[in-house]
Design brief:
This is Phosphate starvation-inducible protein PhoH. Pfam families: PhoH, PIN_4. In the N-terminal section; belongs to the PINc/VapC protein family. It comes from Abyssibacter profundi. One of its GO terms (molecular function) is ATP binding. The protein is of the alpha/beta class. The protein has three domains: 151 residues, 3-Layer(aba) Sandwich (Rossmann fold), CATH 3.40.50; 74 residues, no CATH class; 207 residues, Rossmann fold, CATH 3.40.50.300. The protein has 15 helices and 18 strands. It has a six-stranded mixed sheet. A six-stranded mixed sheet has the order 7-10-11-12-9-8, with no helix packed on it. Strand 16, helix 13 and strand 17 form a beta-alpha-beta unit. Helix 8 packs parallel to helix 9 and helix 13 crosses helix 14.
Length: 466
């Protein structure tokens, strides 16, 4: 099989510096205009600037001590010891543009824009290698459209995709088939723990499809909702979960209005789970549930010292502006969701003005608002951390934030994958999708996708029809 030549656009390297090592046996080609754009973007403290400097270091290490003839012949691509999940070690070569293109700029591409220079370079490369497929790789949709018009095969950069389709993302729960108990009841063990929760250890055909901290339930209501505590080679241990629905126990005055909310509250209140992700459309109750669980564990149970609430300011990684005041005051305009939900949790028909003021004063001392821009290098010990709008984070940024957790801390990531505002991020390569997939099955992590909106009948109708 003939290997392909991939021409890399600047935005691919800005998005993922390790893209140089993700094309397996195929060759890579970097036009000179791409190096110029990388040089122009190297200064600054943004995530893009850091990525550009990392690309420059990779290229410098490969080109160090190499003569002009070796560069012309192509440089071998090392893996640099990178942990590239499910990818082969690169065996292709890296080529730089070393001479001007021998084709003219088509009349339909006027001007001297960098994108047009990349297209001309790719056309010249096609003419130079007629027996090989030359493909332009870019995250710029408009450049891919222009490439298709000029007869150049173009593709999006797909190596950073967590999933090929968002429908493949785990929801965190599944319905058990009819006859589950009869098929798995042989040699089943059951017991009750110190807290009065029932446990079942069983084996059978459905066991291999389960993973730790996944919820299972019976569609017809013939049995209780359960959580998978552990999965062995032949057996799984299931535990009956707590019920926080109306008429049962509440969490800071909040009851679960549907099954998914009840599952989410079980994860949020479980001391053995350190990392929780909640996905859902607007109005499904993500922030309200996370905040109620945090207040219950911080103020009532003293499990955490304080709640830290943060969210991504779009554009991500840039300065949050010349707003007056401290970091917390600068973040206030972004925290409308926090304030709205605090109003719901603290409202009381019986409380007077003084009581409400005292409650708000107490909460202001135990809930801290922080910006993600200043998280690098910090360590949070015994904190309950809520990361809102997490769908706007890249996988690298998500890793930076999650590794801030110290002993006794819990991180809750909230997001709606249909509302991504960060350039070049999609539902399949968002940092939130990345962590949901990578933490799947970890014994101290859990995930639930909230399906039903509970904000109001107006919001529910708008979500479904607009």
């Amino acid at each position: 099989m003939t290997t392909r030549i991939f021409v890399l656009d600047t935005n691919v390297l800005m998005h993922d510096p390790s893209a140089l090592f993700r094309f397996e046996e195929h060759d890579l080609y970097i036009p000179m205009v791409v190096l110029e754009e990388l040089d122009a973007a190297k200064k600054g403290t943004s995530e893009v600037s850091r990525n550009v400097r990392q690309v420059s270091r990779f290229l410098d290490e490969m080109i160090h001590g190499v003569d002009e003839q070796a560069i012309e012949a192509g440089l071998a691509l090392p893996d640099f010891g990178l942990n590239i999940r499910n990818k082969a070690v690169p065996s292709g070569r890296l080529y730089f543009q070393t001479r001007p293109p021998n084709v003219e700029l088509p009349d339909l591409l006027p001007g001297n824009k960098p994108d047009n220079s990349i297209l001309v370079t790719t056309l010249a490369l096609k003419a130079e290698h007629p027996n090989r497929q030359v493909t332009l790789v870019s995250k710029d949709i408009n450049l891919r459209i222009k490439a298709a018009i000029t007869g150049i095969p173009a593709e999006d950069y797909a190596s950073d995709r967590v999933l090929d389709d968002l429908d493949l993302l785990d929801a965190g729960y599944k319905a058990l088939p009819e006859g589950f108990w009869s098929a798995h009841g042989d040699n089943m063990e059951s017991w009750t723990d110190d807290r009065g929760s029932a446990h079942y250890r069983l084996g059978g055909p459905e066991i291999q499809d389960l993973h730790a901290n996944q919820f299972v339930y019976f569609e017809d209501g013939s049995g209780p909702d359960l959580i998978v505590r552990s999965v062995g080679e032949d057996t799984a241990t299931l535990q009956v979960i707590n019920d926080y629905s109306e008429g049962k126990q509440s969490v800071w005055g909040v009851h679960a209005r549907n099954r998914e909310q009840n599952l989410a509250l079980n994860l949020l209140l479980d001391p053995s789970i350190d990392f929780v992700t909640l996905l859902g459309a607007a109005g499904t109750g993500k922030t309200l549930l996370a905040l109620a669980a945090g207040l219950a564990q911080t103020l009532d149970q003293s499990r955490f010292r304080e709640i830290i609430m943060t969210r991504v300011t779009v554009p991500v990684g840039d300065d949050i502006g010349f707003l007056p005041g401290t970091e917390e005051e600068k973040m206030t305009p972004w925290m409308g969701a926090l304030m709205d939900n605090l109003e719901v949790l603290t409202q009381s028909d019986d409380a007077g003005e003084w009581e409400r003021a005292a409650t708000n004063e107490l909460l202001s001392k135990r809930i801290k608002i922080r910006s993600v821009n200043f998280m690098r290098g910090r360590t949070f010990v015994n904190r309950y951390i809520i990361l809102d709008e997490a769908q706007n984070l890249t996988p690298k940024q998500m890793k930076t934030l999650i590794t801030r957790a110290g002993p006794g801390s819990k991180i809750v990531c909230l997001g709606n994958l249909s509302q991504i505002d960060t350039p070049y991020l999609t539902e399949t390569n968002s940092g939130l999708t990345y962590v949901v997939d990578h933490f799947r099955g970890w014994e101290h992590g859990g995930h639930v996708t909230l399906a039903r909106g509970e904000r109001s009948r107006l919001a529910a109708f708008a979500s479904a029809t607009l």
